[in-house]
Each structure stands twice: as structure tokens, then as C-alpha cells.
Amino acid sequence: MDRRVFLRNVLLASALPPGGVTWPRLVPRQGRSLRVTGDRLNRHLAELSAFGRTDTGTNRVAYSDADRDGRAYVTGLMREAGLDVRVDAGANIIGRRAGRDAAAPPILFGSHVDSVPDGGNFDGDVGSLSAIEVAQTLAESRTVTRHPLEVAVFSNEEGGLVGSKAMVGELTGAELDVVSRSGKTIRDGIRFLGGDPDRLATARRARGDLAAYVELHIEQGGTLDEAGINIGVVEGIVGIRDYEVTIEGFANHAGTTPMDHRRDALLAASQLVLAVNRIVTSVPGRQVGTVGRIQAFPGAPNVIPGRVVMTVEIRDLSAEKIDMLARQVIAEGERIGTATGTTMSFRLYSENIPALTDARAQRLIAQAADGLGLTHRTLPSGAGHDAQDLARIAPAGMIFVPSVGGISHSPRELSRPADITNGANVLLQSVLAIDAGGLE
Amino acid sequence: MDRRVFLRNVLLASALPPGGVTWPRLVPRQGRSLRVTGDRLNRHLAELSAFGRTDTGTNRVAYSDADRDGRAYVTGLMREAGLDVRVDAGANIIGRRAGRDAAAPPILFGSHVDSVPDGGNFDGDVGSLSAIEVAQTLAESRTVTRHPLEVAVFSNEEGGLVGSKAMVGELTGAELDVVSRSGKTIRDGIRFLGGDPDRLATARRARGDLAAYVELHIEQGGTLDEAGINIGVVEGIVGIRDYEVTIEGFANHAGTTPMDHRRDALLAASQLVLAVNRIVTSVPGRQVGTVGRIQAFPGAPNVIPGRVVMTVEIRDLSAEKIDMLARQVIAEGERIGTATGTTMSFRLYSENIPALTDARAQRLIAQAADGLGLTHRTLPSGAGHDAQDLARIAPAGMIFVPSVGGISHSPRELSRPADITNGANVLLQSVLAIDAGGLE
What we know:
The structure is a homodimer of 440-residue chains. Chain A is α+β, with helices and mostly antiparallel strands and 440 residues long. Chain A has 13 helices and 18 strands. Chain A has helices spanning 3-14, 38-48, 65-80, 125-140, 162-167, 173-176, 186-192, 223-227, 265-280, 319-340, 359-371, 386-390, 417-435, and strands at 53-54, 57-58, 84-87, 93-97, 107-112, 149-154, 212-218, 231-237, 239-248, 252-253, 288-290, 294-297, 303-304, 307-316, 343-352, 355-356, 376-381, 396-401. In chain A, strands 3, 4, 5, 6, 7, 8, 16, 17 and 18 form a nine-stranded mixed sheet that branches. In chain A, strands 9, 11, 12, 14 and 15 form a five-stranded antiparallel sheet that branches. A two-stranded antiparallel sheet of chain A has the order 1-2. In chain A, β3 (84-87) and β4 (93-97) form a beta hairpin. Chain A starts with a helix and ends in a 5-residue tail after the last helix. The model of chain A is unreliable at 1-21 (pLDDT under 50). Chains A and B meet through β10, α9, β11, β12 and β13 of A and β10, α9, β11, β12 and β13 of B.
């Protein structure tokens, strides 16, 4: 017997209600024909968007009251979906659904519901509510999987993947003292959400503890939308290297210092901004480089800037390429310094190494999309995600749905309801395929 | 009889004490041989530097407690010099010395004692204390001039020539509501220093009210120091045009937005910073152009800047040249905007028209330097000064002494004691030459 047909029969049998079937009741769709209820999923997304809504966008930053209230709403949905809900020590909300094989490691899937300041209603929310919708759909169809299933809503993703870091055992003591955008330290924020920063070890999952991790997310870029493709199969999450560059010139009076006597730190910084763009675009590929923050000191219209502090960020799937580009930027910075009478110092203050998804998981996701009649394309994730942490301890897969215009981290962020429903169905089918042994 | 010898005899006669001369008492030096006491002047400068001294420089910003206390110290020196001291409605300290001809308009000379944040001890202080030293020297030599003399210590020069604006009747109601660096509004600050913002008209001097205005100041640039020249004869104070430029791009995720899909406001701004430098240095002359302030929004390392606000300042003695350069910068801004998918808007928020000094006053100052055996050079003032306001209602002259290394608005600002003494002697001789009818 075909393994899938066998599995389907098992599922059908297990879904029979205790009192037997009363005909002509419709048998719920099962297995590969199972579908989420898109209207309900999109209604839940709209309801969640009320938490933290302001005139300038969604402000549900981690550890805020809006975050706490949004999580309470999400917890309610999880309970309605029949999940056994708890908050782990890292303040991640975990909703568990038992499987037939109590010894099997759980399949974990989910995302986050915290937002950036002035953010939108899809980043994180789509993956979290779709995971719950998958659980609800399985409950309604009385599907029982072999593996236990766990829906995860990670805490403080936007502030540095805090919840998923805790889950993989990499949340350090020093990081707990960092003040988050909410104004609370991460330690206090975790406590505020019901976690326990003193017992983080209890939240930790080790390699082998999970059968897989799967995350649905909006692309946050414009590739799928522009190409009119339904589903992105994520090949990996790019590495990110962040430098803080300090440029020292000499502050002097803007009226009395002749042009040829200046050591203008901003003039040098501007050359570096252009150099970052030139170097990053000088080789083929999907790497990106950004100067997002710049400050000139003393910062008065009538004083030549004596010091500039700016960031340089480089992202790519290849750690080697990031390194090569960073070396070129630093070398160019030294050249600019010499030419402008300034000194440039580069401080690497943050580095995330690239995280590749599991090749078999990529294949299962693509097959799930095929089975649903959806177009798909393999692409990297330029943004960081909780999946990059989980990829260190479990086979990870990641599914993207289109972002209209590629806009994200903005109130103008939008993913269309039909695309979200497609993504949730791919998530559902991917989880079932993994449960059926697709990664084994 | 040579006019100067005649004058000197008059001065000698007028200086005789009421009770006659007791020989062999030394006759004080008079007229062209009169000299200030440099040691005392430089000691007073050192004493004044104690007010507002901090680890990061002199912080005697207008309307601060340090400013008030420094002015009290200066007022004491003025009284010791025999001046009749009052504070006008604009909070300028005015010390008057009667002349022989009560109907003659006064000769005004002075500067300011407020500092920029983290400033030095010479900008303003040198001119103010030298003016007092001139008065002290005249008192000790029992010199009585024909014109009344007035020593002025203007209020809040660094915050926009506030005191001198009040004196020429150009301090407006709107400006009074501006919050100064002290945290006080200008209105409250004027009151804090003993002025009366409700009666500013009483501080006003009209055209014809003053015989002349003379100001000694440090160069704040490096021209004199580099050339080893003792005295600068200022031909004028440059005009200043200040724009605030807003560059609108589109803020987006720095990881997910491909390089060729960006509308990066900071990339456009950096091109404009370089263009300002290129355009200003593209024609011969002493014009300067500066971008001193820049802010990128939202200003996060992982977000492409969607908006940048920066300043562009252009200075020159020629209003036509400023206009020509500004037009080129704006045109280049439009070209950059088109090329980068951003829009640039230029808002002219401040404009000071160039102020030329009186040609006869320039000649008198040069002759005074010659008479003292000092080298001199004509040069523009790149910085704004109270003299530019006074130049609108009276013949104005301005004397520069060297700034070591051209450094100013910095704790490293330095003018050498000998240079300061030279400047004070040139001021003394210039005032006497004006009194003797040099501008008539």
C-alpha cells in the first residue's frame, strides 16, 4: 500500500468520534485534501491588529501592554483550537497537541506577534495565526498525527530573536540586561510576559528534541509579488554583519575655516556611504549593504562635523561573501580616511551567521505547494527569523507568502488574504508531510 | 600744524589734573604713544575664563548662570575703568565715558562674553576685555576724547547676535519666543540678565546716533596665524545662507529589499554632501559651504533610511556669489533626486546679508597697525559678529588677531597674549584716530 494512502486510512480511523458516525453526516476532509478556513484565519489577523494600533502604525513592541494583550488574545485562539497552552521560561507561548506516538519528538511550527515600532499587521502575525489555524483545522477534522505538534509564538522576535534564542539555549545573562524598546530590560520583559529569566534552562530544547521546525512568514521583500509567485521556499536566512563606524575629523567653525583646511568627518562619511553601495553592487548576487543610522557631531549647521558615527550592515547567505565585502568596505574606508584627513574605525558589534534550511524540508514545502496547485520559487530570507535559531537544533523549513510591493516594517505592509490562506495550507500540508516521515 | 600734533597737545592739556602737575611726576604717555597694559588684559582674560569652565570646554552660553556671573565680573572691571555702567533693555552692558563735546555722537566699541557650548576663552572675550582695557588705559592716562566713548558687551551673540539686533531695532517679537541653548526663551533670558524685553525700543540706536563702531575679535580662522601676520583688517562680514534640505525616499527592510529596488534617502543625501563641497570649491575665492547637521529616519541599522534632513550653509562676502552657488546646489539636488528616486526640498530658513566695513575705518586700522610696527592684512570675516548689525547704522571697523591653528568654537581655541595685546593697542589707536576725525 502506498504509504500515504495507509497513513490517510489511519487518520480516518482515528478521527471517528467515540459514539460512532451518524449518517448522512459528511466525513471531514483529511490528509492531502485537508484545507484551512481562510476566512477565519484572515478574520483573526484583523482582530489581532487591534492590539497596539496607533495613528502611525502598529506598535506592539515586545513587553509592551499591547504585546501582553495581543498574546492573551492569541492564547485564547490556541485554547479554542484545543491546544494545551503554557508559557515557557523564555516567555514563548507553546500550545501542544498530542500525537499517537508519545515517544516521537514534536514538530514545532509558529512565529511571533510582537511588532517593530510603527510596524504592520503581517510580519510574524501571519505565521503565528496560521500555525493556530493549522491546529484548529486538524482538531476540526479530528486528525491525529504521529508526532506531537507544538505551536510556538516566540517572544520578542523583533528585539533580537529573544524567545527563540532562549529555546536554543543562547540567551546570555548580559543580553538580559539590555533595555528593550518597551523601556523594560529583557529580563523584566520576560517576567512581564509570564516567563522566568532565572530558569531559562527549562525552556531549552537540545538537538534531537524536535522532529522539525517550520515557519510561515511574509517575504518582507518584493520578489514573489513582483514575479506573481504564490509561495517562497526559503533556502536559508542570510547572515548579518553589523559595524559601527566612527569617523574622526576635526570640528571647526564653518565660516572661518577655508575649504582646503577642513577635516570634515561628514564629507568622509558621505564617501563611505557611497562606497558601501558601490562595493555591495559590484558583484553579482542578492547580497545587500545598508547605512541606516548616521550621526554627525556636534551637529550644528555652522560647525564642520568633527565626528560621525554610522552603521554599516551587510547581509548574504554566504558567510564568505559577507567577509569579502566587509574587507573591501574597510579597505575603502581607510583610503577615504587618508584622502580626507580623517580616521575611520570599524567596530563589529553584531554578527548572525547564515542559517540554511533543511534541503528535504525545502523539497516537502515545494511538493506541498505543487499539491495545492500553487507556484513557488526558492529564495533566501534577507530578514532574520526565529527559524535561524531553531535551524541549529532541528531540521528547519520556511515558507514565504508575498508582501505587496515588498513593503515591511511599515504600516503599509500588506499580504493579501488569498496569499495568506495559501501559505497556511502549505504549512498544514508540510507539517503533515513531515509527520508522515518526509524528513526521515 | 599737523592735525595729529595739534590733537595730541589738546589731549595733553586736557589730561592735566585739576591741581596741576607735581614734578618730577612722570607724565603719562598720551595719544599715539599710548599703550594698553597687556599683562593686566591677559590676566583679566584668564580670570574671566573661570566662569563656565567645565571638563569639556567653556560653557558660558547666553542666559546661563555662568553667563550672568561672567557679566558681573566684567561689569566690575568696567567700573574699575571709570565707566558709567548700565544694562540696556536688550541686556547689553554699556559703559560710558564722557567726552569733551557732549553733543558729539559716541564712539562704540566692544564685543561679547557669551560662549558656544564647549567653547573656548577668546571668542568675544578678547574684544570685550580689550575694550575695557582701552577705557582703563585712557582713564589712567587721563585722556579725554572729544566724543563720548561707550564700551559695549553685547548679550547673546552666539545665539543669533541678539543684543546687537536689539540695538539696531531688529529684534522681533517672534524671535523673543525662541528657546535658547540655556533652556530659557530669549525673552526670559534678556530679563534674567537685567534687560527688559517689553521695552526694547529704548535700547535702539538709529543711524547717526553713533560716530562709529569698532570691534576687536579673534580671527577664528587660520589665515593670520599661518601667514605670521599680526593684525587682520576686516573688509566685511560674510553673508550666510542656511537651508534645511529634506530628502524623501522610502524606508524599507534592509535585509529584504534588493539593492536595485531601493529609494535610499541617505544615499541621495551623501551625494548632496559631496556636491555641496564640489560646487563650492569649483570657483576661485574664499566662499565656504558646509553640511553640519544630518539626521536619517527612522535611523535604525536594519532599515533603509526613508527620510533625511540636513543643513546646507553657504557663506561669502558677495551676495551674488552665494546666490549663484545656492542655485547650483539646488539644481544638483534635483538631479540627484531624479537619479535616486528621491525628492529633495530646500527650505531657506536663515539669511544674513554680507556686511561691509567702512573703507575709511579699514584705512585707520591699517595705519594704527603701521604706527605700532605691526604687520596687517585685509581679509573677510567668515564668522558673524555684532559688527554686522552695527554696520547698518554706523561706520564700522573690525580688527582681527590670530587664532592659533585657526581653531575656534572649541576648548582648543587660543590666541597668544602678545597678539591680544597688539590687538588691544590697535583698538586703542583706532578709537583715538576716529575721535580725531579720521572718519570725517
